[in-house]
Amino acid sequence: MGELIDLRARLERREADEDGAAARARLAACVHVAGGRAKLARLLTARLGWTVRASHVAAWETVTTPTADVLLAAEAVAGRRRTATGRIVAAAGRGLDLRAVAAACGPAVVADVVLRYAVETPRAELDPAAHPLASCVLRRDVVDLLAWPVTGRAPAALEGTEPPELADDERAAFFGHCREVIERAEARFRGPADPQPHRQALYFAQWDPSTQAWVQDLERRERRRWRPRLGWTPRWVAARSAAITQARQGNPAPLREFVARGLTDPACQDADLAYWCYWVGEINTIWATDNVMASGDDSWNGRLLLKRLTAGITPEEPLLDLHAASISALLDRRPDLIQDPGAAAQIALNTERTLAGDALDPPTRRRLEDLHLTATTAGR
Predict the structure, then answer these.
(1) Range list of H helices, 189-315
(2) Under a CB-based contact definition with an 8 Å cutoff, are residues 353 and 314 in contact?
(3) Over the stretch 26-56, which tens digit does the pLDDT of each residue have?
(4) Which of 152, 142, 150 is nearest to 174 (CA)?
(5) pTM for the full model?
């Protein structure tokens, strides 16, 4: 009997030790989030109403198990200062399809970096030229993951997965950061060069329903700054992005104007196709700057791009005018792609359905008629 009592006592002590270690680990996490023992001590002093010193926090973190009220207070005050790090990666890890999770986690790291920088960077430290977006052109996989916590829309491969948590004040900080990037870049860069953080932040800003009038005004300004006679410039990219945003919001006129004026130069057509290939993942190398799309690199084969553009040949597609122009340019440069019977049949089917509508822009209708004829001829 004595041995049984002794065993029970040892188990209880071990459980207490394990509980104490877990509590100290939770407090250590609070120290990390709060920014150090001294900062957490100040926060706890204000929260608990009695003086807490950094030495007290160190003891609770490393030797003495903190009391329940101390631990709850620490988690409460640190919770308001939790970092954005890892939230998108963590949410992607809860995905239902392991292959989708594996494919998403690389882009999720990039999305997490952008999210954390936007939410946590003090205004005084913000410099558009030193922004993370100044060193990277984001692809669709990253942008879709970044939009997830901000808008609640999950990437297609992760539908049904619980979204990353983003508090209202953090969402406001994200959009405030985007606006600050744009306004500082507007004041600093007025020539044909356009730092890419500006246009990428402008794309993110469209996710905020409360600032649509401001976003639309900026997009009109971008289109005015771009000069078609100059051919490709970084402003061409900004004008393209602005027109796409307007089309997604139900206004097709700017995109139709861009297609008519911005996709007549062969070099601009090449840049458009290169950017499409990069956006959909057919180009694996991550671009450092927008300039890469105008480098003339045509190492991509276009098969994935053709599939994606063909899927966008539908009456409901807001970017239909751009899809029609881009797929026409693609088949001019890669005529062998239409020899694939499956690709030809899908183009023929989609163009036939779309041509049945009566709201097409005349140049787009002509392109779709040509595509339909090319596809049906190839399929014979």
Answers:
(1) 196-205, 212-225, 234-248, 253-262, 266-280, 303-311
(2) yes
(3) 888 788 777 788 888 888 888 888 899 999 9
(4) 150
(5) 0.76
